[in-house]
Amino acid sequence: MTAPMTPRATARLQFHKDFPIDAAVPLVPYFAKLGISHLYASPLLKARPGSTHGYDIVDPDRINPELGGEEALERLVAALRAHDMGLILDIVPNHMGVGGADNGWWLDVLEWGPQSPFARFFDIDWNPPDPALNNRMLAPFLGAPYGTVLESGDLALHFEPESGKIYAEYFEHRFPLAPRSYAVLLSATDEPQLAGLAQVFRALAVEGEPEAIRAAAGLALDMLRHHAETPEGRAQVDAVIAAHDPKDEAGRARLHALLEVQNYRLAWWRAATDEINWRRFFDVTSLGGLQQERPQVFEATHRLILKLYADGLIDGVRVDHVDGMADPRGYCRKLRRRLEALTPRRPAEAPKGHPLLLIEKILAPHEKLRLDWMVDGTTGYNFMDEVSGVLHDPAGAEPLAATWHAMTGRPADFGEEAREARRQILRYNLASELNATSFALRRIAMRDLSTRDFTLTGIRRALTEVLVHFPAYRSYLGIAGRSEADRKLLDWAIAGARRTIRETDRPLLDLLDSWLGGDPPRTLPHGQRRERQRAAIRFQQLSAPVAAKSVEDTAFYRYGRLISRNEVGSEPSHFAETPAAFHSDCRDRAKYFPNELLATATHDHKRGEDTRARLAVISEMPEEWAATLTRWTRLNSVLKKEVDGEPAPDATDEIMLYQSLIGAWPLDLDPADDEGLDALVKRLAAWQEKALREGKRRSEWAVPNEPYEAACRDFLTAMLAKDRPSRLREEVAALVGRIAPAGASNSLAQTLIRCTSPGIPDLYQGTEFWDFSLVDPDNRRPVDFPARKAALEAGEAPAALLPHWQDGRVKAALLARALSLRARQPELFAKGDYIPVEAEGERAAHVLAFARRHGDAASLTVVTRLPSRLLGEGGLPLVPSEAWGDTALRLPLALAGLQWRDALGGEGHPAGEALPLGRILADLPVALLESTPK
C-alpha cells in the first residue's frame, strides 16, 4: 500500500533550528495513528541563518542545512512512506531574503547592477523618476542617516582573500563593489603594481557582452587575489583599505566617493518608505520581490522543488502569498502543468495521482476563488472564517459595537476604521509603492494631449481614494483584459472613491477605470499597450499589500468590538455567519474545490482556535460584557499613567487587552498561582507590545513610543498584582470559569465540523489539545508531543473524557475518532455529497447539522451552536438532555431509512425520519453518526 496523493488530513509543522527535520521523524507513527495522511511542512529551502519561519529563503537550490539538509528530508520521507503517508511543502515564490550577506543572487545584483544575470530576477525599476537612481537601486539597510553612519565608522571596507574582492560591510550587511570601481579604489595608492591593476580594472568595458565583461573582471580580481597572497602585496591592499578608513576625514571622503559610483545608493532604512525602487514583501525591506512571470526566474526558483516532486520526496505544494505576483493565474497554471508533467517520472513507491496545489489567498466575503487557476483551493483561511462565524451570535453584533463606540470613541463600523488605516498605510508605509504606481500612470497620461495636464499629485490623490475603497486584495488583469469579477471590484472601488474624492479630481476616476483594467486600444503602439499593462500590474501588486497592512496589520489592532472576529481571512464587519450561509459555502466547496484545506489554526493566526471559540461566547452575552467592561475600567482607572497628556493605556488598548486576557487565560490557572500568573503576564506583554505597534495609533514599529508602551506594560502587571483590593485576578478567573464551558463546546463543534466538511482537515501543530495562543510568536511555542502521544495511546472515548474536559484530552479524542472515520470511509469524505440537515423545535437555532452521502455510505455531523444560555450548572460543556425539549433533526429523503452508529463511541440510533437532539447529544455537545448496513 502507498500513500494517497490527495491527503485525507494534514498536520502542519513549523521547522526551525530548534525543531529540525529529524525531530519530526519519531512523530510519524503518532500522526499516522491519529489519522493524518500527510505532513504539511513549513518552508524547507535554505533560509536566513536562525530563521524561525523559513519565509526568508536565500538559496532556492538547497534544503536548509540548519534543518538537516536533503539527507534529513530523505529520512523523514522514508518514515512517512513506511506509514503510507505523504508530504506537502510550503513554497515561497513571491520573494527572497535580501540584505545581509547570504543571498548570492542579491549580492550579484549589488555588484553588477543592471548587467547582473539576476538583475531581472528581482522586481527592480532601473529607470525610476529619481534620476539619482537611474541604473541604480536604493539600498536602505543603514540604521541611521547615511552621513551619520559614515562618520560612525560602522560602515567600512574589507578584503576577502579567497575571491580577491573588496566590499563594504555594515554589521550583517555586505555591499560588493562594482568591478569597474576598483580603478577608483586602487588609485588611492602610489604603489606601481596596484596602479597597474587599476588600469586593468579601468579597461573593463561598460558596454559589450555581459559574459565577456564578467570574464575580464574575473581575471582582474584573480590578479588582485594573487597579488595579495604575498605579504608585501597584502600590506599594499591593506593600505588601500586604510586610505578609505571612515574614521578620519580624508578616508571618509574617499569612501564616500567610492560608494557614490556603485550600482546602489546606501540609505537609512526609513528612506525605503519614500524612495525604494524595488518591490518588497509588503513593507519588509529584508524581503525582495521576485518576477515569477519571467521564465528564467520560475526555472531557477523551482528547480529543486520540481526535482523533489519528481523524486517522490514531496506530493504537493502550498504556495505562499500568491497575490504578490504579477500574474497569479498564469503562475498557478504553469506550476500545475509542470507538476503534472513530472508525475510519470516519480518512483514506483511514490504516490500516484494528481499533485496537490494549494494557494495562500485571502478572499473577501463576497469573493470567490477563480475556477480557471487550476488549483485545488486555498489554505483554509476562508473556512476558518466561516466556521468561526457560524459559532457567533448575530444578535450580539449591534450591542457590542455600540458598547465599543461608547467606551472608546472609535468607529462602531469596521469599514470606517479600515479606510482610515488604508490612508495611513499609503501615506507612510507604502508611499514609495504608491509613488511608483502614480508615476506609471502619469507616463500614460503624458502620452495623450487630452490627458497630459493631469498632474502627478492629482493622479496620486485619485489613486489613493481608489485603493482606500478597494473591496478585495486585488484584481487579476489577464491577457484578454479584465473579467466581469474584476470589473465589479474596480466599479466598487471607484464608486466609493467618488464619495470621498475632491470634486476637481473626479474626472481622473474615469481615466483610472480605463487605465487600470480596460483592454488598451488596439490602435496603440505595442510599447504603449505594454506600458498600460505594466501600470495595471503595479496597481494590482500595490492593492494586495495595502489590504494586508491596513486591515490585518493595523485595523485589526484598532477595532475591538469582539476580537475573535479580527482574524486572518475574516472581515470583522461580517460579524456572524448564518447556518444557511455556512451550508451554501460547504456545498460550493464540495462542488468546486473538494480538496481545499480546512484550517482553524495557522502559523499566522492572530489568536488560537480555542481562544476565538471562547471569546465567541461574549457574542451571546453583550449586556453582561458591557457591565463587566464598565466595572473593570472603573476599578483599574487608578492604575493608569499619563503619557503625552493622555491616559495610558487608552480605552481602545485597554478593552482589547481585557479580551486577550480572557481568551488566553489557561483553564488550569488558579488566580492564587503567582508563577502561573507571571507566565501569562509575560505572554500578554509580548502580545501587547506587538498590538500597540501594529495598531500604529500611539506607537509603531518604526518609532516605538517607549513611554506609552512602558505605561501599558505597567498597567498590565499592576492590574493582575497579588492582593489587590479589587481582586481582579479572581474576577477574571470567575468570568473565564463561566464562559469556558460554552467556549469548549464551541471548540469541539469547530473540530468536528473541520473533520467532516468538504475539504481536507488541517491540524496545526499542538492544537490536538486546547489552543489558547495569541499572535506569533506565541502560537509557535514548543509542543508537548509526549503528552499528546500518551492521550492517543490511552484510546479513551470522548464521552468518557468529558468530565475532565479542562485537560484537553476530550478534544484530542474527538479528533482521533473523527479522523478514524475519514480513514475508514475515504470516498465518503473526498467525494460525498453535502446535505444540510434542518432542526425543528424550540432549540432549533442552537444546532448545526449536515450529512455526507456517497453510494451506500453516509455520515451525520451534529454540533451544538450558541450554547451559553442552555448549559446547566454542572460546569460541563454539555447542554442537559432536557434542555433540548422537543428539538429534533428532520432527516431529508436522501437519509431516510438509514440505521446509524455513533462513530465517537456511543450507542446506535435506529432508522427514522427524526432524531431527537436530547438523545443524540446526551453525552457530548457534538455527535458523529455513520450509517450501518441494513
UniProtKB/TrEMBL annotation:
> Which SMART domains does the record cross-reference, listed alphabetically?
Aamy
Source organism superkingdom: Bacteria
Name of this chain's protein: Malto-oligosyltrehalose synthase
The organism named in the record is: Roseomonas populi
Q: Where is the Glycosyl hydrolase family 13 catalytic domain?
A: 8-502
UniProt cross-references to PANTHER family, sorted A to Z: ALPHA-AMYLASE FAMILY MEMBER, MALTOOLIGOSYL TREHALOSE SYNTHASE-RELATED
Give the gene that encodes this protein: treY
* SUPFAM superfamilies listed in its UniProt record: (Trans)glycosidases
